[in-house]
Write a structure and sequence with these properties.
The protein has 289 residues and is of the alpha/beta class. It has a single domain, classed as 3-Layer(aba) Sandwich (Rossmann fold), CATH 3.40.50. The protein is built from eleven helices and eight strands. β5, α4 and β6 form a beta-alpha-beta unit. It is globular and about 40 Å long.
């Protein structure tokens, strides 16, 4: 079984897209826009401690061939101003403020990890802004009987600075094929020459941790509300995700009225970068359907 590693192009649209800025009541948001003109925007919601610089350019370019791509740093993250909200609902409100500041109307959303939980909250709170939803490597928060996340995950994720070995452990499977895909992914991220060295401030990390912890309690789970989401949802994960177990993806897909679930073999939290081309095709077919 192969990992379908993504090819590395000499010049990525995602790596050369200029930084832009838009003001809202919440923050001055930094964003990048590129891809096929005149198409419905696909807005990306990023992971814990992630910025625009942490999206794989091969995946982005594959999606940009058919869609307008919008990346942004949320409030208090990366190049954006403002304060990072300490709740999932607050982070979703920041995303809504960004979409409204650009006057986009309704968009499609792709949320990864923390961004996937935020995407669910956004669709629940602001259904007028979301047409279709892609939830990657994520969950609704607390899920009864879900496998416990290894203690090592938060020990590694909580380090002041993460090195390549940390990312390989957190995002990829501990097999030669998956690890090789992870090394290739990390190399592609270096194509962006203006990346921040320390993009997320400690206060913002603390706020995100508070949001994640609150959603991890039964009272903070979105699972009981997912039946309200009548829009089409694509749920995807790696079969061996150590950060957000695929069990949560399955339970989430069961609770969503119009969900499709896809699990990728020999892959973890970063399956969308390991299987970049295959995942991009899956997303585009879903969005066009």
């Amino acid at each position: 079984m192969t990992t379908n590693p993504t090819p590395t192009s000499a010049l990525h649209l995602a790596s050369i897209a200029p930084n832009r800025y838009v003001d809202s009541p919440v923050a001055r948001f930094a964003y990048r826009k590129f891809g096929r003109p005149g198409t419905k925007p696909l807005v990306f919601l990023q992971r814990f401690r992630g910025t625009m610089d942490d999206w794989d350019p091969d995946l982005l370019d594959a999606l940009a061939a058919e869609r307008t791509i919008l990346l942004f740093d949320s409030a208090g993250i990366g190049r954006s101003t403002g304060q990072t909200p300490p709740t999932i609902q607050g982070i979703a409100e920041a995303a809504a403020s960004f979409i409204e500041a650009l006057g986009l109307g309704s968009v499609d959303i792709l949320g990864w990890s923390l961004g996937g939980t935020v995407a669910q909250q956004l669709a629940l709170d602001r259904p007028d802004l979301v047409d279709k939803l892609v939830i990657a490597g994520s969950g609704p928060g607390y899920v009864a009987d879900a496998p416990a996340v290894p203690d090592k995950v938060w020990q590694v994720a909580g380090k002041a600075v993460n090195d390549d070995e940390d990312f390989l452990y957190l995002f990829f499977n501990e097999t030669p094929a998956s690890r090789a895909a992870g090394v290739a992914h990390l190399a592609r991220l270096k194509h962006r020459t203006d990346a921040f060295e320390a993009p997320v401030k400690p206060a913002s990390i603390g706020a995100q941790v508070a949001a994640i912890q609150a959603s991890g309690h039964p009272a903070g789970s979105l699972l009981p509300r997912l039946g309200q989401l009548k829009l089409p949802v694509l749920v995807a994960n790696g079969i061996n995700d150590v950060m957000i177990p695929a069990f949560k993806s399955y339970v989430m897909a069961q609770a969503l009225p119009q969900a499709k679930l896809v699990l990728y073999p020999d892959a973890g939290h970063g399956f969308l970068f390991q299987y970049g081309q295959a995942f991009a095709r899956e997303v585009l077919v879903f969005l066009e359907g």
